[in-house]
Amino acid sequence: MAEILSQEEIEALLASLSSDGTETTSPTASRSSGNQAKPSSLSEPLRRDQRGPIAYEIYDFRRPDKFAKDQLRTLQMLHETFARLYASSLSAYLRVPVHVDLVSVEQVPYEEYIRSLSSSIINVFSMAPLAGQAILEVELNVILCMIDRLLGGPGSVVKSSSVLTDIEKALTDSIINRALKDFRTAWEGIAQFNPKRETMETQAQFVQIVPPNDVVVSILFEVKVGELRGAMSICIPYLLLKPITGKLSAQRWFSSSLRKNVGRHAPVLAQRLAKTYLTCVVRLGSTQMTVQQLLELKEGDIVTLSRKQNEEVEVLIGDRVKFRAQPGVRGKKLAIHITRVEPATEQEALLTHRSPSSRRASKMKNAV
């Protein structure tokens, strides 16, 4: 039979438990007394109440992080480019100043994104060869304002119904197709795909491109057309971007943009450099002599060169040998006949790449 404790023993036991509990109730108290709390022996394991507070980060399983911070930054830069392109396209198309500004880029469950939509034109589009679908959503008021501008109006919104007429649908198609074209251009440095609109809806609950709990990246924009302000958003599922997530890095995006800009401006640079004057020097030959022989040279002396009589001479452009030629006379002036062109360097090959129009103009000039 177990031994029955006396009242004094019970009170002593409760007092000891109470004192142990006060040491572990507050993490702040534990940190402040950390220097005083020492293990009784080096071999004794450190008790939990003697360790500092454990640092941890709250993880919400309903909102799992699929995209790394660097990938989200790259997506932000991509869609800042898209915003600039689309603003320029709409300004020229509507003949009114249009501003498109990126507001946020975040990863959320698809269900949460859909719940945030109201009174919108929801366009589902594919991104072949990537598998899956994405969403381009524009608030109804913004679309109606653009349609009014296209029909010659001031851009006012007087319609309350979300049902579009056939003419309004056709004009909406042109507005959305311009957005998808600029969207493809903005992504060219990361991935090549062909966005194509599949369906258009006005009721968000009818649009199910992925299961409700799947992670999507939600990109929110603010659109200003004249005096009207509204929202536009793009929703791209993680599963759609998963094959190219390795390419979503700022370094890759910057390097691809640099290559694209160099290739784009090379014909323009070549065209401008074509009008630049350069010094052309013909090197007849060379020889070696001592300083004494150089000092003794006088008018009438003959200097023998290393070049033979029928050997080609070097033609220098700047400080580089560009051609080989034979010297001669044309009329009353000395001349050279180009016999050989030296191979171009890599930099020269880039600058001598010309557009078809410039090559055609060169051929016409040679024919004349």
From TrEMBL:
It is found in: Bacterial flagellum basal body; Cell membrane. It is a peripheral membrane protein. Residues 16-47, 348-368 are annotated as: Disordered. One of its GO terms (molecular function) is cytoskeletal motor activity. Residues 272-341 form the Flagellar motor switch protein FliN-like C-terminal domain. GO terms for cellular component: bacterial-type flagellum basal body; plasma membrane. Residues 356-368 have a biased composition (Basic residues). Residues 16-43 have a biased composition (Polar residues). Keywords: Bacterial flagellum, Cell membrane, Cell projection, Chemotaxis, Cilium, Flagellar rotation, Flagellum, Membrane. The keyword Methyltransferase does not apply. The keyword 4Fe-4S does not apply. GO terms for biological process: bacterial-type flagellum-dependent swarming motility; positive chemotaxis. Belongs to the FliM family. This is Flagellar motor switch protein FliM. It comes from Chthonomonas calidirosea (strain DSM 23976 / ICMP 18418 / T49).
